[in-house]
């Protein structure tokens, strides 16, 4: 659900220290910003501190974002704090990549067109032409960029070009079914979310539902994670799960898993665009709502 | 799991206002207290603000609680703030009331004796003698206080007497199966947690599993709530749920519900003693962990 | 997921008795029908027996359905058995009724167009024009039949007319938001499924998410049930649930509930069309898969 | 919950074939046995058939088990059927093995002493003395059999001796924390259930909660499985799961996982003793209730 447009997200992290909370909250108080929601995490293992504040600036003046950031910087610097300011008024650009399977795309498009996900979708990229009609119905440009072993570098250059042209804030691999090259993965670090249809780290790689069937597990699930250079091994954002039994062949697992894939991926995108996710040491801190 | 003994819980609530967060965090900073965990909730409907901070005082001096509280008070008063300071070093006294069914009691005692619930249990009160042996094994005084329609006022006076003698911080009705009088309910407002074996507000009153069976529901559950003067209608703290089907007669529902009753009640007690629950307008704000 | 076309569903129920299973299984054996899946329930409370068999007829001859039924009848009659034969080859006609909210409709249409729900949808009926475009995109006739207090009888006659013209096997109220008259409810007994956005019997009637918010529950859910003459009180088929907390206002509960409404309703339709649901004494027996 | 004593379990499996159901049901009919519950599974992948029937023999005569079995055998043989008859009147002997952690043992003992698990516990075996007192309180013989790298063969011989002396039907490794030798594993094939505190096949081996923490998963779980020669790789019976987040260090994961370990293990034991589990090709068929 879209936040009011005067909502701001201030996120920050730094080494844990006395005063890390206060440096943020006292500044917001001085600036007469109203704290709507606030969460902190002090990681005793890594000694790192994380904070997310949702606030509304004073309504009696125009909020000067540049000024706000400029004045915050020297204070934050005292704590070696990395921080970011974002606003709900600016919907992030999300590029979606798909292959032939449409359930995750269909689900994201539904949440997009009904305003449940406060995003813009400037492009859908696919290595197959099948989902053009679905994109058309939503008036979203569809880029058919076929890929094979011979043209992979070229195709990825085209993909990256579309992403850059769109000024994408986030790339969502909604069952794209292709491994990205290390180059592309690296270029998209922290900016690309993949949905894998297993409870990672179980059943990495191809056909996880077949692997799950062969193993005879009694639960299957889905994992939304940031991509990195290791296949299906990036930082996990959120996971979902379903009970199954011996009567679920791979085909039934595939059918049963669809809903949980859709919901898990949409939740991860929602967390990301509301600035609820921090990447740290190959893992995530997620301030859920 | 028990918190380190130098953990303090500062909880506060007041009308929502600019500066409600800062008044707490800046004070903690001044006092050189380290914020371990912090949550806030700004209720846009009631316009009320809630905050919970877990902190550790400076380790290089003795923490003067009285001084800390005295200096906080005038600042908090500016916001009409109600607040409380508690410490993990002081385990709360929890009096447990039961009838004949022992699953919730057995579960609470296990968590108590293994240190998972950081409480003292100075007394177990029952209107039946059956669970004496279980209390004995844990070296906990057992008060057998039979009750019937004729002696109810008298028995409740005895109950209240035990509670007061023990300086109980919390009373847990672990399937006590007796309605408390309005007098006793009122005396225990906000200090007594009941477990009801249904998803309230569905199936209030007697034999909820029989009611659930008659209705043919496909989910049953348990609700932990503070007691008030209305039967099974007090502020809900937490709820749990289980899938069932047509083959579950009342006896099977009863069996299936036991685990979820135990877990739900233990979770509520855990939230309460870690000062995670606020009572407000007949509902609760619960900062879960 | 669609079953193979040579799949047959034989469902039966009768007073519990020695031989109720055998009368079915021995007949299937004689007819050289291969049992694929089989479930029974012997209700010790009502003394009633239920059986569902999924089978494939012999592949070396043409299966004579009429003959099969004719020969079964005298044997079934010995047990006062009510029974039905259905085939996966014949997709049931499902008429969907909606108002303005489209999430359940959108979900059902997705499952329909991808073959996950093996149904035909000959008509969508709505009292508002809003969802015409969604119907058009799926090439499904859309009947805009506005209703108000003055024209209710007339409108319901038109609704019933569409249902009859379509030879609907099932009517799905996918958030139709209008109470049906006793006449229409009665006409659709056992043939109309409604989705109600609460864990019935809690929060019947209007705005259940607002009711849930006011009560401060920590779980919300959805209930798919057959309609009857009592508002939101028909036999329950299946229910779904979500964890919520104090920060979920009615708007957030509404948003959070959407997914579980969709999934719960789709599951109920799936059970119905695969002949997994028996209506009995105001409750259901559901042989889940 | 204990079944009535005149309950019989008939389980069978064989290559899938026309008549596999009928051979059982027609025999039960002839013997005037009343079918209470019945489930079948026809595995299209392996071509194998499984059936479980719960029945009550005629109440007007003494049921001659030997005669029943003798007459069934030639018919079952026609289908190369492996079958077993068991009765609820005979509580299975379950030997429990533990190390120092007591949560699973405590839970099993509670279910045992309250009759929820219809078993006898003739022995508790431990490589540590710690849980003697808990065993004593339940009047169960406790065997303290320390083990180290030098005496492993000897200790396992003692373990096996206790198991055999007790005529154990089942061995439950309730967090035993020791790898069994291939010899002992083999001796206990299909007769020993282990609880592993991860969602297998993820996080095999030591300290799975630490592994889960390091990976940053958002779900943890427990897996009950039959042991075999491969560590934590035996056929899975049932699994349970819990949502976690970044704030759960290994210590918190351990605490949070306890409940789900207990429930998952108890459920597996329940399924096993009610003859609901078939071992087949390194996986299980489980007819849940």
UniProtKB/TrEMBL annotation, chains A, B, C, D:
Keywords per UniProt: Hydrolase, One-carbon metabolism, Purine biosynthesis
Pfam families found in the cross-reference section: Formyl_trans_N (PF00551)
EC number(s) reported in the record: 3.5.1.10
CDD domains the record matches: ACT_F4HF-DF (cd04875), FMT_core_Formyl-FH4-Hydrolase_C (cd08648)
InterPro entries on file: ACT-like_dom_sf, Formyl-FH4-Hydrolase_C, Formyl_transf_N, Formyl_transf_N_sf, PurU, PurU_ACT
Positions of the catalytic residues: 232
Reaction catalysis annotation: (6R)-10-formyltetrahydrofolate + H2O = (6S)-5,6,7,8-tetrahydrofolate + formate + H(+)
Family label: Belongs to the PurU family.
Protein name, as recorded: Formyltetrahydrofolate deformylase
Native source species: Oceanisphaera marina
Name of the encoding gene: purU-1
């Amino acid at each position: 659900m879209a936040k009011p447009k005067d909502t701001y997200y201030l996120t920050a992290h730094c080494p844990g220290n006395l005063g890390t909370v206060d440096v943020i909250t006292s500044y917001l108080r001085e600036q007469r910003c109203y704290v709507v929601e606030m969460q902190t995490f002090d990681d005793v293992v890594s000694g790192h501190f994380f904070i997310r504040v949702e606030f509304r600036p004073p309504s009696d003046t125009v909020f000067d974002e540049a000024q706000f950031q400029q004045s915050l910087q020297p204070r934050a610097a005292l704590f070696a704090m990395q921080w970011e300011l974002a606003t709900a008024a600016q919907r992030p650009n999300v590029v979606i990549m798909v292959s032939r399977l449409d359930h995750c795309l269909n689900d994201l498009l539904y949440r997009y067109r009904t305003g449940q996900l406060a995003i813009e979708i400037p492009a859908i990229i696919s290595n197959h032409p099948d989902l053009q009609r679905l994109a058309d119905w939503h008036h979203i440009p569809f880029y058919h960029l076929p890929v094979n072993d011979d043209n992979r570098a070229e195709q990825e250059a085209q993909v990256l070009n579309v992403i850059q042209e769109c000024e994408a804030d986030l790339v969502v691999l909604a069952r794209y079914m292709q491994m990205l090259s290390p180059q592309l993965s690296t270029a998209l670090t922290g900016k690309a979310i993949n949905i894998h249809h297993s409870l990672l780290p179980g059943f990495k790689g191809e056909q996880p539902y077949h692997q799950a069937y062969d193993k005879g597990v009694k639960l299957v699930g889905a994992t939304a994670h940031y991509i990195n250079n290791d296949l299906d091994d990036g930082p996990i954002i959120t996971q979902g799960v379903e009970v199954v039994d011996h009567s679920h062949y791979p085909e039934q697992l595939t059918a049963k898993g669809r809903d949980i894939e859709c919901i898990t991926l949409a939740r991860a995108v929602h967390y990301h665009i509301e600035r609820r996710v921090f990447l740290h040491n190959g893992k995530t801190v997620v301030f859920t709502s």
